[in-house]
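Here is one chain, start to finish.
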Amino acid sequence: MQRLDTGAPRVPGDVITRPRLLAHLEVGAPLTLVRGACGAGKTVVLREWVQRTEDRALWITADPAGADSGGLARMILRRLPRRTDAGDPGVADVGWQAVRDRLSDLGEPVTIFVDDAATLERDALVDLCETVAAVPAVRVVAAANRRTVLDSDAVGMLVDRTAVEPPDLMFDEEEIQRALGVDADLARRIRAVTNGFPAVIHAMARRGIPADHGSLVETAAEGVEEYMRLRVARSGYDPALISALVRISLAETVDDAGARELSGDPRAVHYLDDAESYGFGSWSASERGRAFRFAPFTRALLRRELERRHSGEIPALRRVVVAGAQRAGKPTEALRVAVEGDDWELARRVVMSSWHQLLNHGAAVREILGSIPLSQLRDEPLLVMLLAICYNAVRVRRLRGLQLFRLAVSAANSQRADVSDSDRLFIWVTESVALRVLGMHERAASVAVRALRLLADMPEAEKEAYSVQVPLLSAQLGISLYYGGSRRQAIECFAYGAAVAAVGEPENGISNLSMLAGIHALDGDMPEARHYVQLVREGRWSNRYLDGYQGTFYRVAEALLALEEGDVEKAAEQIAVFGPHRATSEHWIVMATVEALVALRRGRAALGATQLESLVQVRGREGHSASARRALSRTRTLLLLAQGQTHAARAILQKDAPEDRFETIVERARIALIDGRPRDTLRILSQARAQPTSVRQSAAAASLRTAALVRTGGEAAARHDAQTLAALLCDRGLRLPLALLPPADTRAVQELLRETDSCEIPPVESALPESIGAPALTEREQIVLRALASGRPLTLIATDLGVSPNTIKTQVKSVYRKLGVAGREEAVAAAAARHLLADHG
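Its structure:
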């Protein structure tokens, strides 16, 4: 059988054979569509099939000069044998009827390949399909770079149709491995950045793979840029479509509104639909609506064209992209676009409007900002601070974070005088945070005060642009004030931030509510703590917030509420979330304090002490600093006392504890009580110049004073103090002050509290060991002590015990000294309170 002169171009010698695509063409449907962008390999696949098949085939390359229906008929007729017509020789052998007649005369199946089918007019393609329907032995395979009438439902009703879509034309990983001679891992990476686009894979096969695999996209774009430009110019694409895609390509992802705004063309969304059909990218759905993402290599090509055609428009387009990314909730994309364009003012605006969201994408921020030379960042304190915080959150990069905090302070102090108030506000917040993280708490608080004044004085209209960030700014300023010792101002600042968030973006108020809950709980104001905890519980917060940095003080509040209610296991569950953050969080001392209290109440003081010292080691120089030792002195003291190590606890207080702090005075009084010196306990508390700074400190002092009065036999004074203590414990919901007394004192004070009518206080067990606080009386002294309780004169007691009056007096003085009392009545009362009068014989 003589084959037709197909007219098909020869297959290039370096063609990459793709059997799976050839199999698509073997299906045999009357109409097969092969659709893909320029460079998608349509023509190559069709040529290869023509070269390999034994079937009759003819090749038609559409010609724009003959794109109408008659022109297509003439092209086909030129490829077909002339017909010997027995009819009227005057009838012209032209037109679609002549095409049908000649195809029927062949007497065997034939496949017509139409390349660049999108160049043909609609009527030409419809007439071609009608010919296929009329001549059963004819099949058409049409390649097009965009949708045509062949894709319509009408044609689908006329003839059976199958299609090779753009995704089918893309190289898969196995084909990339075979074409480029690479392993599976590199093939996977190449597939990800090139989308398997055939022209790019062919270019890589010719040019080779770059040694720097990170430049795969750029290498791919360079390899096909000129080819694609020529193909697009000859393809018949609407110039408006190309212009729109070039402008839109500045965005990595874009929504409908962003596409229209970037292109300035109301048809932009339809152009993106076309781009998807060409394999240039794809639409995806999200909660905020659908978004289009270009394939990486496509975007690289379009970006090159953007630079070539419209470089002067790029700054304005970049602002549109940034606004769209922020509108879509993608602040890291907005920041990346600003930084890629070296538009630092725009980058600052992104940070100012999306601070909180950016902190939740630390890895992306580190990728975007981490490679920028510090010489460029030196004058951008907001960017330096953002990067520092993101480094600080990663344990192995924390040192780098601290270095950047110092740079942020320097950058903040070198700002020009002509910056706007809003810029200045963010700069001061940045400076305050940096100083705080570096341990300069007083300076941080001073800067925070300045920032709050500026915030209060700014017109509401000026705040509008970043109003959503005000609660976040308030939270950071409040933390600086809190650690700087301005507790009242800090609480006011947090309350303001929570209120602003409540009428705007409630999610941004979590830090303020958390801090309020934790501070009140630490201070012993449990009703207030419970109020803010309930607000957090009722909110729809992500666990990312509750279990992360923002939720630290909320977890502190939950743990302390559980401890005060006697639910130790619940408290332990709450602080378990601290684990991943103990090495990096600035709140580590608060974490350690609450962890120690939980360990005490669980009877695991030794384990608590070990965990504390481990954390100190993890924190490095910061953990061993003088300020850290001062802050942890009370915690260490309590852990040592719970292990019965009174001498070591006393040494910690002497070495590390600040003398002018009321909490230090309380611990000195506690040790005096444990040592059996209740009079010293009373003296220490009564002569203190410092005043309690929280209800918890007041309750601790009141419980120690009451216990000391019980020991010394001051019954009336003890009852009076018990009334005061009961009021504190009941109103504030506190139980821990009783648990931190020696066991005998805990029981004695609780017995006295039961006689008050303030409220019913549930039983509390001491966290200290039974042995602690009990005087080391000899066996003889214990006998003398029980004899004193009988009320008999010393002379008779001496006779009963068979010793001289002088000996009994010496023994009695020794008992008084060890009990810390001045006389017989006090000794008996103290002994009764500490259960020393029972006959153990």
